[in-house]
Write a structure and sequence with these properties.
The complex is a heterodimer of chains A (373) and B (357). Chain A has 373 residues and is mainly beta. Chain A contains five helices and 18 strands. Classes of the chains: A mainly beta (373), B alpha+beta (357).
């Protein structure tokens, strides 16, 4: 009697406590799964960095309460940019109806509907998002998180061995063990904000800063790969190794526009008003006319907000980005939907606000990918 | 969750019975109806059917974990909370056959198999003309009343609105607090103990005379080692038991206007109702209008082109669900934080679409 009883109770234990006299019209397979696949599936897949896959009904419904809470708090999917501050490529945040569908389903009894029981075969492995790179640089040896370590940062030097200067259209990272690789940064020569040439998070598309943009890599250049590892509870207590790779895509075109990085750092004396210790504004002026194509917040502690504006020579202010509750997790590059042209003499102003528990002490910066006119 | 873990969880925590199964009568359409005697459903007049209720403990996040006794979730270590489950013997071939005793199917003679279903709890209507809230554990419920000047009472119910003895609970009625921005803590300046009535029917505090409306915050402890949870009551009038039925809330059919301007106006109307309910402290009634505003906002989504409007629609949906959640809990600070978002979203929608005069 025990086995069928167990199986039946599995099916029956599903519905969460329905609370209002409404039941959801949404089902997992028809309405919820497509959203989970598009918005959450890069991490919440078998072997992914999320501690549970959300790509099958059986694995999803026990998390209904958790999913509802994360979605309503805007913690998941992680996306710090305020949608009002402009259009960004590869936006991960949910739309009104996506939020509603998920929450309604989570609260309304989590019905399954008709559909396949297993995960789709198309999500099997992690491959290079832009196809095979022209040059793959692997970590010289595997990095191991022993059984007692739950997070770590590894920094390794990668020799390109290039015998001439090259232009790069894109730089990608492929994790060796996706379940522990939370994020990665690629630097030129030395790990410092001004040397960042690529950032990577699991749900990001391979960064192409602008259609005709490219970065210069000097011959015999050395890259530094910094990987942030974190175990989920599935890997807790295990010894886990990773050997990630950096993929370089070369530009063979005669001409292109060079992408450079402008850094606005919190290093110097803060200017402007604001509550000492909790709010600060930093600025930097631009000697040349540039097109801003992407923004990368370099944060070393959680903030309540970050706002970047450009004050044009005429005094007019142009908002570049606004982040709500950004933090060091999910170091994502925000690629602008359309580039913003700033005339020479514009001043970049970055305003930070810190939470009550943790005043501004650490260094923060905003990195702008720009193309000089 | 890892499928292996899920299977493991089920092997470790098969549905066990506490032996405290209770035979009740319920309505096939209104499972919240729980009667001790046969009869008809007070809502739809259908004939009640027999049902068995079994009490168990489940995790607030992993509903797959169901244990016969209290403890911690083996997957995430959260404390388990009590749930009620309906226990039935069902025919695998004939879903209409659900019996309260073991046996065989009267149609096909197959052996009936045991099924358990977590029962919904839906009844948040006050029983004594007071204000009804749910505790954060989603199981305990309470009703605050102000039956005569200077008297504040709290009645307790389980998740099927069955009365519980108040003797197991502790608490105090707080009338005055000050917030210290330097330490970001709240200090109570005037509080009265909530003491059990002799029969354990309710907790009562004598809160001194004062003119209506009266604002009283109950801080209640449900488990011996648990935190004191906060419930904010606002009594506009004395509570009268005969008002109980009249204050029951229910959602009607939502009519979506045809033009965006009409929809924006309808959202504004709902916003005004929500604002008034909050001002009156009727937090547990907010959900009807908040969720209607949400459904109206969703009707605007396909035509929303500006980033501003898309943001506002998403915020309104989010805030409406949060108001629903926090309204049940009776926590004013949380209700107000969700309302702030709701109001900003409504104003942004109005500015983007323009309401009809």
């Amino acid at each position: 009697v025990k086995a069928p009883l167990l199986a039946l109770s599995l099916l029956a234990a599903g519905p969460a406590l329905a609370h209002k006299p409404t039941t959801t019209k949404f089902t997992y397979h028809r309405d919820v799964y497509p959203i989970l696949l598009a918005r959450c599936g890069a991490c919440h897949r078998p072997g992914g960095v999320g501690p549970m896959s959300l790509l099958t009904y059986k694995e999803t419904y026990p998390w209904a309460v958790s999913i509802k809470n994360e979605v309503l708090a805007l913690r998941m999917p992680p996306w710090f940019a305020d949608e009002r501050s402009g259009e960004f490529q590869h936006r991960k945040s949910l739309s009104a109806s996506e939020v509603d569908t998920i929450v309604d389903w989570c609260l309304g009894g989590t019905p399954e509907g008709d559909g396949p029981a297993g995960p789709p075969s198309s999500i099997a492995g992690i491959s290079w998002a832009r196809g095979e790179p022209d040059l793959v640089l692997a970590m010289p040896e595997a990095f191991t998180l022993d059984s007692g370590t739950s997070d770590a940062v590894a920094e390794v030097r990668l020799e390109t061995g290039l015998d001439e200067d090259r232009w790069l259209t894109a730089i990608d990272v492929r994790p060796g063990r996706p379940s522990v690789v939370r994020s990665a940064l690629v630097f030129r020569e030395r790990a410092a904000p001004e040397n960042v040439i690529a950032s990577w998070v699991p749900d990001q598309d391979a960064a192409a800063p602008a259609a005709d943009g490219r970065r210069r890599l000097r011959k015999r250049a050395t890259l530094v790969l910094r990987v942030h590892y974190e175990k989920t509870w599935l890997d807790e207590g295990k010894s886990v190794s990773d050997r990630s790779e950096v993929g370089l895509y070369f530009d063979e075109r005669e001409r292109g526009r060079e992408v450079e990085t402008v850094v606005v750092e919190s290093g110097g004396d803060p200017m402007g008003a604001g509550r000492p210790g909790f709010e600060a504004t930093f600025e930097r002026s631009l000697p040349d006319r540039v097109d801003v194509v992407a923004l990368f917040p370099w944060l070393e502690a959680p903030l309540t907000s970050l706002r970047a504006e450009a004050v044009l020579p005429g005094g007019e202010t142009r908002e570049l980005i606004r982040l709500r509750e950004p933090g060091p997790d999910w170091p994502r590059k925000y690629v602008l939907g359309a580039s913003i042209t700033l005339p020479a003499g514009s001043r970049l102003q970055v305003t930070l606000a810190a939470p009550e528990e943790e005043p501004l002490r650490k260094a923060h910066a905003l990195l702008l990918d720009v193309i000089r006119d | 969750m890892n499928p292996v873990l899920l299977t493991l969880a089920l092997l470790l925590f098969p549905p066990a019975f506490t032996g405290a199964q209770e035979l009740i009568w319920t309505c096939p359409d209104h499972r919240e109806v729980t009667e001790a005697e046969p009869g008809e459903c007070p809502i739809c007049k259908r004939e009640l059917v027999r049902s068995r209720i079994d009490e168990a403990w489940s995790c607030p996040v992993h509903s797959v974990v169901v244990e016969p006794t209290a403890g911690k979730c083996p997957l995430c270590r959260r404390p388990l909370y009590p749930v009620s489950r309906e226990v039935a013997y069902a025919c695998p071939m004939h879903p209409e056959i659900r019996e309260v005793e073991e046996g065989s199917c009267p149609i096909c003679a197959m052996a009936l198999v045991l099924e358990t279903t977590t029962r919904p709890h839906q009844d948040h209507n006050p029983k004594r003309g007071g204000i009804f809230f749910m505790a954060p554990d989603a199981w305990h419920h309470l009703e605050g009343t102000y039956p005569e000047p200077g008297v504040f009472r709290v009645y307790f119910y389980d998740n099927f609105s069955r009365p519980m003895s108040a003797k197991a609970f502790r608490g105090r009625a707080v009338l005055k607090e000050i917030f210290d921005p330097a330490t970001r803590t709240t200090k109570e300046q005037l509080a009265y103990p909530l003491l059990s009535s002799a029969g354990g029917e309710y907790l009562e505090a004598r809160v001194g005379s004062g003119s209506l409306p009266r604002e009283i915050t109950a801080k209640l402890q449900f488990e011996r080692e648990g935190a004191f949870e906060r419930f904010d009551f606002l009594f506009a009038d004395l509570s009268r038991a005969e008002d109980a039925a009249a204050t029951a809330t229910a959602a009607g059919e939502l009519v979506v206007p045809e033009t965006p301007q009409g929809i924006a106006s309808a959202i504004r109307d709902r916003h005004e109702i929500v604002r008034d309910l909050i001002a009156r402290g009727a937090y547990n009634q907010i959900y009807v209008s908040a969720l209607e505003a949400k459904d109206l906002a969703l009707a605007l989504e396909s035509g929303a082109e500006s980033a501003e409007l898309q943001w506002a629609l998403r915020e309104l949906v989010r805030a409406a669900w949060l108001l629903d959640d926090y309204g049940d809990l009776g926590n004013r600070e949380k209700v107000l934080s969700a309302y702030e978002r709701f109001e900003e979203a409504v104003k942004t929608i109005e500015a983007a679409v323009g309401g009809s005069p």
